[in-house]
Amino acid sequence: MLLAIPAFFDFFGSSLMFVALTMTPASVYQMMRGFINVVTPFLSIIFLKRKQYIHHWFGVVFIVVGVCGVGAVAMAYPTEDNSHGSVGLGILLVIIAQFFTGGLFVVEEYFLGDYYLDPMKVVGLEGMWGLSYYLLALPIMQAVHCSSTAYCDFGYIENSSYAFYQMADNGMIIFYTFACMLSIAFFNVCGITTTKVASSAQRATIDTSRTLVIWVISCLLGFEIFHYESIFGFILLVFGTLVYNEILVLPFCGLDKNTRVALAARAGAEKRDQNYMNTSPGAPYDANRNKRLLQKQKDAHYDKVDGEGEDFHMNASDNSAK
Questions:
Q1: Other beta carbons within 10 Å of 179
Q2: Model confidence over 9-23: pLDDT tens digits?
Q3: What span, in angstroms and rounded, lies between the C-alpha atoms of 133 and 182?
Q4: What is the rounded distance in angstroms from the CA atom of residue 177 to the CA atom of residue 212?
Q5: Cβ distance 251 to 87 under 8 Å?
Q6: Burial 18-46 (b: 16+ CB within 10 A, else e)
Q7: Are the CB atoms for 210 and 53 separated by under 8 Å?
Q8: What is the C-alpha separation between 101 and 220, in angstroms, rounded?
Q9: Distance CA 238, CA 241 (A)
């Protein structure tokens, strides 16, 4: 039942992003999703009480600048076909959707931290809840009239019956639909596993690695026009992601002071120092230590005494012996 909550976040986030995908090029859509690296750390601080260090915020700044740069280029070079709405609105919807996706990541980490849940089971249950939400929402949206030619389908917000008609008319749509289902299922299993063994913030940053693949393939296949200005935003986005995820550690301005490796090294040094002080000749004298040693010797003595009665098998520290 608890997994209905992250599925609820996914329901809104996925719906907004798929609507935005009809308005923006695939690479711009994916790059703008990098804003999740800004949303998730803030939500982690508020709800999971996680601490973010200077190198995290340094990476977040570069991510924000990169995302803004990519969005500016996309709005400066709009596509020729604007029948599905403006690029600016699509970018806005992607950014809003990241708050729901960030909530999904944080809620999953919160529940996975308190319960043992197999990632496959989590994906299956969240999929069940997501299907339930859409079975409830789609009939409602199909009954709502609208007049916009950019955002409506034959006069309604949604037209599921026409979607099935398109599938029957073109078998490739069915193939792409099942391929998309398998891809999303595999992606969700990997994502939830990452959340379980690492954190929601790391899952968000690793998710950004898809940006390069999508951008390159989209340009090579001619799905969109290559604009060299996007390279700068992309470089900043990837650089910020690498710094945040500590794949790239910068050894200046204290950016390498609180990485996972540095924190683990300091914790190990403190533990070694503590153990040395407890066992060294200069360790504080413990007056009770001799008492415990004498008591241990008495206990060993009484345990070795053999007799017929239970009174001879007493432990010297046992209150009953008194």
A1: 10
A2: 999 999 999 888 888
A3: 20
A4: 24
A5: no
A6: ebbbebbbebbbbbbbbbbbbbbbebbee
A7: no
A8: 29
A9: 5
